[in-house]
Structures are given as structure tokens and as C-alpha cells.
Amino acid sequence: MAAKKGGGKEQRRAELGEAVQRALLSRGLEGLRLRDVAEEAGVTPAAVLYYGDLDALVHETYQQAIERYSRQREEIADRFADARDRLRACIDHGVATGPDDALTRLLFEYWPRCLRDARAAALDSALTERQIAVYSGILVLGQAQGHFTLQDPPRLLAATFVAVEDGYQMEVLAGRRTRAEVIAALRAYARAVTGHDLAEGA
Asked: What does the alpha-carbon distance between residue 62 and residue 56 come to, in Å, rounded to a whole number?
């Protein structure tokens, strides 16, 4: 970061955010030190502190990761008019690619802090609610289009989609399950609660 000329404060802050992310992924949240971020950014610890203390920088990095993950999923779902295509895309996008999926791993690295930190818990709740909203909207649309037959309220089903997805994410990140296995499991749940088999296409 120090080697780059110009670009302004916002660019340097963005570069520092990337350094925080790299440090988090390499060391984990509990072992993270200010000098780890400084080394990743190529600056002194004092230069890092110009932008905030370590907790503030980590919080901001997590907030940005949530926004990026949520926005990507929302945009992917919105590409399709048919709820069956939306549900298929939502499931496919939500599952980590593997143990090296940086964005998903980053979100899960921060999660334990939610048990002790109210600010972290609020961010995590916001992430969960945005994912539930995507699934719920798809289920409501699918019912309106006559593709889905729902036996329970859409929000309840949507919340379960997210809970199942989150549980399986840990398995993928730990290398115990493949992405394909998790997608198959989520599609099986989708078939059970909507009456539509996503494998059949729209």
C-alpha cells in the first residue's frame, strides 16, 4: 500500500481493507494482530492505525463482505423472471466453491465474535435477514406463478433454507462435503417444500 502513489485516501483505505481480509484468511480472527495487517499492506502498524484500530478495521471488512455477498446473490436471483430459475440460481450461488472460497470463509471467520459482541451480532443478523428475504421472495413468486405448492409460510421455509445452507457451508469449508453434495441436499429440500424438482428445469 505504501509503495503506491496517488489514488487518494479512499483508494488507500480500500487497499487496507483487502490487506485486512488477507490477514484474516491467513491467521484467523482470534490470532490476528495489527502487525499482520501492516505486513499484508506493506506499511507500518502506525500507518494502519491512521484508519482505525484493529477491531474497527475488522468490523468494516466484515460489513463490506456481507454487502458484497448479499448484493451478488440478490443480483443473480433478479436475472430470472421464473421463480424456478431464481431458486436454482440462489441455491447454486449460495454454496461455497470449496475450502478456499475466500468470501464465504471470511464471513465464517468472523461469526464466533457474534456470540460476545453485540455489533457483530447485529451485522450477522442483517446478513441472515437479507438471505431469508431473497428466498422468501422467490417462494412467494413461485407460488403466485403456480410453480410451487407451499405447505408452510414462505418466511419459515426461507429461514430453514438459510439455516440448512449455513450448516452445510461449514462442511464445505472444512473439506468434509463437496459443493455438489450440498447443492443436491438443498435441491432435495426445495423439492420437499415446493413440490418442484429443480433438476427438471423450468
From this structure: 10
Look at residues 163, 148, 162, 155 and name the one whose alpha carbon lies nearest to residue 193.
Answer: 148
Q: How far apart are CA 145 and CA 156, in angstroms?
A: 20
Q: What is the pTM of this model?
A: 0.86
Q: Which three cell numbers stand for residue 192?
A: 420437499
Split at pLDDT 50, 70, 90, the class of 44 is: confident
Q: Which residue ranges form the domains of the chain, and what is each CATH number?
A: 1-52 (1.10.10.60), 65-200 (1.10.357.10)
Per-residue pLDDT of 59-104, as tens digits, reads: 888 898 999 999 999 999 999 999 999 999 999 999 999 999 999 9
**What is the H or E stretch that residue 13 is in?**
helix 8-27
Q: What is the pLDDT of residue 99?
A: 93
Contact partners, residue 62, CB within 8 Å, separation at least 6: 106, 107, 110, 120, 123
